[in-house]
Write a structure and sequence with these properties.
heterodimer, A: 182 residues, mainly alpha, 3 domains, two-stranded antiparallel ribbon, 8 helices, 4 strands, B: 355 residues, alpha+beta, Creatine Kinase, Chain A, domain 2, eight-stranded antiparallel sheet, two-stranded antiparallel sheet, 13 helices, 10 strands
């Protein structure tokens, strides 16, 4: 289990474990120590997580794990074309221009890398449009709750963590339901 | 449709404002897109039309946004489009794609809003002199008003979603146009430009790209638009520009102290050429005008020549402006150089005798 005194990854049992991975299944809490490579495989967010806070890392891997492996695998490779406007990823690579706002979702992985290269950051900290403030506030709450969840996991208050996780899931589901178009 | 050429671009001709000796103008532009519509270059003509209509509606509904002059790019000639581009009122991008493109101008063209540029909305405010914050305040106000009537393509995580990821987030490009003859003559410009570029700011020549800029005019702008607030972006830029101004002043003082005859000779030779030449291309004219500007700053022209005159000349000696003065739509190089020389001789004589 040890390599020069380091603990090995609980998944591949080969590389050095550097990430604590906490998973909550119902009331069951499982903790694992895994390596960077396995973490990347399980969660696309880990590939650019060096700068993220440790607690959030664990949280994301927990939340993303629940979305199912097939969805994650699809996200790792850039989609051929944007699912909204049909712009081929190839076109973006050539022109550096996206086809529509939806391209940001369709090409999320490649864009995360590009945005980080250009700006050194991937989180907006500027002005929020007046008309959209309410919707954003809702999001802010989800972000806040995720932070609380990370803290709960950190202090091993798993009852509170499971509760928060369920609420986040509900809110996210609500957000994903498209509003009725008139 | 005729555009009153010179009236339109008066906003940064003024040549006044803080640090006018070094900072010619300050500009802030915001990139915005409407939610649920492909970006301009992907959108179908009907979608572009709809975007233009929604923006027109928003501008007419919002009381504070009345008084904009609308210019439909497809309704004006290619020569007129070139004039707008030369006066920095539209981008080369908008000049190329005229269909369903429009520009709204207000406040002596201090404010311009381009519709269906690379992004649905590109709005900018230009101020004369060193007034980046004022420019931002002006355009931010218009953005806030528009956002009450338009739903922007915005993500809580990434901010404003733009066609090019170099604008994502705030969509803010803040810039200052600097005149840096001191640093150029002292041979220090290349190193400084490199330093600035390494610190996440773009340096662009006023005319053309690269480190060498005709007329010693350099535009410094932020590159990062995501992960920083508007205030952080602007204060970061101001920090860089403050330093440049300081270096430029030091270089000029040193040059005037140690090499006064050389500098004065170069100023008066430039004046002589500009007021006597029979053929002059635009890059030579721009370089010589830069020396004249240095002469104004050094008090060599006793106020008979001002920053205002110089700023104006820089725009007026460009091809489309020259041609339209003669009622032409185009001219070959040599006749254009002849027109430019004649125009400069006349203007300089007028300016010096009237001031």
């Amino acid at each position: 289990m040890a390599l020069h005194g380091h603990r090995l990854c609980d998944i591949c049992n080969k590389a050095r474990a550097t990430i604590k991975y906490t998973r909550i299944d119902g009331d069951q809490v499982r903790e694992m120590l895994i390596c960077q490579a396995c973490a990347s495989e399980h969660s696309p967010l880990h590939r650019h997580s060096e700068a993220e806070v440790g607690g959030l890392q664990k949280l994301f891997s927990t939340l993303l794990k629940e979305k199912g492996a097939s969805e994650l695998a699809a996200k790792v490779e850039p989609t051929e074309c944007c699912s909204v406007c049909g712009t081929p990823f190839e076109t973006y690579r050539k022109t550096f221009l996206l086809g529509c706002p939806g391209c940001y979702e369709s090409f999320a992985d490649a864009l995360t890398i590009d945005l980080r290269k250009i700006h050194g950051a991937i989180t907006h900290r500027g002005k929020v449009p007046e008309g959209q403030a309410e919707e954003i506030e809702q999001r802010e709450t989800i972000v806040g709750m995720k932070r609380q969840l990370a803290e709960a996991v950190e202090r091993e208050d798993f009852e509170a963590a499971a509760h928060l996780r369920d609420r986040i899931r509900d809110m996210e589901r609500e957000e994903e339901t498209p509003p009725e178009t008139p | 449709m005729t555009i009153p050429l010179l009236d339109l671009s008066d906003r940064w001709f003024a040549g006044e404002g803080p640090e006018a000796r070094t900072v010619v103008s300050s500009r802030c532009r915001l990139a915005r897109n409407l939610a649920g519509v492909p970006f301009s270059r992907t959108a179908q003509p009907v979608q572009q039309e709809a975007v233009a209509r929604r923006i027109a509606d928003a501008l007419s509904v919002e009381a504070g946004l009345k008084g904009f002059q609308r210019i439909e790019l497809s309704e004006i000639s290619t020569a007129e489009r070139a004039i707008l581009r030369e006066a920095h009122l539209i981008s080369p991008e908008l000049e190329r794609h005229a269909d369903h493109c429009a520009v709204y101008l207000a406040d002596n063209a201090r404010i311009s809003i381009m519709v269906n540029e690379e992004d649905h909305l590109r709005m900018q405010a230009i101020e004369t002199g060193y007034r980046v914050r004022e420019a931002h305040r002006a355009i931010d106000e218009i953005d806030s008003r528009l956002s009450r009537h338009l739903t922007y393509a915005f993500s809580p995580q990434l901010g404003h979603l733009t066609a090019c990821p170099t604008n994502t987030g705030t969509g803010l490009r803040a810039s200052a146009m600097l005149h840096l003859p001191g640093l150029v003559l002292a041979g220090r410009i290349d190193r400084i430009v490199k330093d600035i570029a390494n610190n996440g700011y773009a340096v662009r020549g006023f005319y053309g790209e690269g480190t060498h800029s005709a007329g010693d005019l350099y535009q410094i702008s932020n590159e990062v638009t995501l992960g920083k607030s508007e205030e952080e972006i602007i204060s970061g830029l101001l920090g860089v520009v403050d330093q440049l101004i300081e270096h430029e002043h030091a270089s000029r003082d040193e040059l005037f102290a140690k090499r006064r005859p050389f500098i004065e000779d170069s100023i008066w030779r430039s004046y002589a050429t500009l007021s006597q030449a029979r053929l002059i291309n635009s890059s030579e004219a721009i370089s010589l005008l830069s020396r004249l500007r240095l002469g104004i700053d050094g008090g060599h022209f006793n106020e008979r020549l001002t920053h205002h005159d110089l700023n104006r000349l820089l725009i007026e000696i460009q091809p489309a402006h020259l041609a339209s003065r003669r009622g032409l739509t185009d001219a070959d190089d040599e006749s254009r150089d002849a027109m430019r020389a004649e125009f400069l001789r006349q203007r300089l004589a007028d300016i010096v005798s009237s001031n």
